[in-house]
């Protein structure tokens, strides 16, 4: 007779000794946590984020010519594909002077894309573009733009990225510039009378 093969047990965990076992020394034993009863008369503190003074409901009073426009990587790439001059098309869209701003993260992202996007890099290094330094770690441009827009409400964000648009729509008073039908359009920009246009 041959040996009977034992079926191997998969995902079988090793037996572990309980922390309340009698064999464990008193000093190594797990301490029993006692829940403190909440005092009903105590004043409950909660932190509420402070709203910026520039917002009147959805209307942002800090937005005005000359407009500062935060440019995303894909916005520059799509502008090249659509054969649009960045600064001129922005001025045609907003009927005012526009200053395109580019952060270090976006610049780093374009540089990482390599030789294929050399035209985008040359456009980004245009002297008409205002360069914004980044103080945070990492080079993820989307987080950088969202953080900057949350802190300072004086920017319009130019992007074609759906995920970034979705994140920015949650921040009140920040308009989004995008490309459609070979021209720039603006989303959620207050008109001359101060009533927000959606």
UniProtKB/TrEMBL annotation:
<dbReference type="InterPro" id="IPR006984">
    <property type="entry name" value="Fcf1/UTP23"/>
</dbReference>
<feature type="domain" description="PIN">
    <location>
        <begin position="67"/>
        <end position="166"/>
    </location>
</feature>
<dbReference type="Pfam" id="PF04900">
    <property type="entry name" value="Fcf1"/>
</dbReference>
<dbReference type="GO" id="GO:0006364">
    <property type="term" value="P:rRNA processing"/>
</dbReference>
<comment type="similarity">
    <text>Belongs to the UTP23/FCF1 family. FCF1 subfamily.</text>
</comment>
<dbReference type="InterPro" id="IPR029060">
    <property type="entry name" value="PIN-like_dom_sf"/>
</dbReference>
<dbReference type="GO" id="GO:0042274">
    <property type="term" value="P:ribosomal small subunit biogenesis"/>
</dbReference>
<dbReference type="InterPro" id="IPR002716">
    <property type="entry name" value="PIN_dom"/>
</dbReference>
<keyword id="KW-0539">Nucleus</keyword>
<keyword id="KW-0698">rRNA processing</keyword>
<comment type="function">
    <text>Part of the small subunit (SSU) processome, first precursor of the small eukaryotic ribosomal subunit. During the assembly of the SSU processome in the nucleolus, many ribosome biogenesis factors, an RNA chaperone and ribosomal proteins associate with the nascent pre-rRNA and work in concert to generate RNA folding, modifications, rearrangements and cleavage as well as targeted degradation of pre-ribosomal RNA by the RNA exosome.</text>
</comment>
<keyword id="KW-0690">Ribosome biogenesis</keyword>
<dbReference type="InterPro" id="IPR037503">
    <property type="entry name" value="Fcf1_PIN"/>
</dbReference>
<dbReference type="GO" id="GO:0032040">
    <property type="term" value="C:small-subunit processome"/>
</dbReference>
<comment type="subunit">
    <text>Part of the small subunit (SSU) processome, composed of more than 70 proteins and the RNA chaperone small nucleolar RNA (snoRNA) U3.</text>
</comment>
<protein>
    <recommendedName>
        <fullName>rRNA-processing protein FCF1 homolog</fullName>
    </recommendedName>
</protein>
């Amino acid at each position: 007779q041959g040996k009977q093969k034992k079926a191997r047990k998969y995902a079988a965990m090793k037996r572990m000794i309980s922390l309340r076992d009698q064999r464990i020394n008193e000093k190594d034993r797990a301490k029993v946590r006692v829940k403190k009863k909440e005092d009903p008369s105590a004043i409950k503190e909660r932190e509420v984020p402070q709203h910026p003074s520039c917002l009147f409901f959805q209307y942002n009073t800090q937005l005005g010519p000359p407009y500062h426009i935060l440019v995303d990587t894909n916005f520059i790439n799509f502008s090249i594909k659509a054969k649009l001059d960045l600064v001129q098309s922005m001025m045609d869209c907003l009927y005012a002077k526009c200053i395109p701003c580019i952060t270090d993260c976006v610049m780093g992202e374009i540089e990482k894309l390599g030789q294929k996007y050399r035209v985008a890099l040359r456009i980004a290094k245009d002297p008409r573009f205002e360069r914004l330094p980044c103080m945070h770690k990492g080079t993820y441009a989307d987080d950088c733009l969202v953080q900057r827009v949350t802190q300072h409400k004086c920017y319009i964000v130019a992007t074609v990225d759906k995920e970034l648009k979705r994140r920015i729509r949650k921040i009140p008073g920040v308009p989004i510039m995008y490309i459609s039908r070979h021209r720039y359009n603006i989303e959620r920009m207050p008109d001359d009378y101060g009533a927000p246009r959606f």
